Structure prediction request, 166 residues.
Amino acid sequence: MASGNGLASLGVDGAMSAAHALSLPADQYGNDQQLEVMWAMKAYNHAEVYFNLISSVDPKFLKLTKVDDMIYTSFKESFSDLNIRLLNPDDLKSAEAKERWRPFCNQFDGVVEDFNYGTLLRLDCERDYTEENTIFATRIQFFAIEIARNREGFNSPVFEVKNPKS
Prediction:
């Protein structure tokens, strides 16, 4: 993932202002374009850090939350048929999918901090974050899918490309 345009480009004062703005309740804002840009930058920064992490550490050994086991078990019970290697956007965004995801996501309210915040998710887990390979998802969807990808070895090719066996 290319870097250089993340939060660091805001400088200290800009980053502090962004952090403060992002901590306020959503109902205090309308459709503020500057706020949307800050959210996009925060989501991009999270994606960049995560991709660098799975490129540097064997994903099979990563623990993303304190409740990974709970998330994984519930996810596999609810979405055993979901192709996590190559996600279809409709499996996350269609009206039917949203109805299916809602009870799964809501069970983590109060369990996973910011469970419903927006984040970026790769569609094809063997590829980097690009415009064509990225979808907007909730944080708990990201955790559920990425925990499963890590445990089931689907993210291993990302690590193996950056760390070839000698």
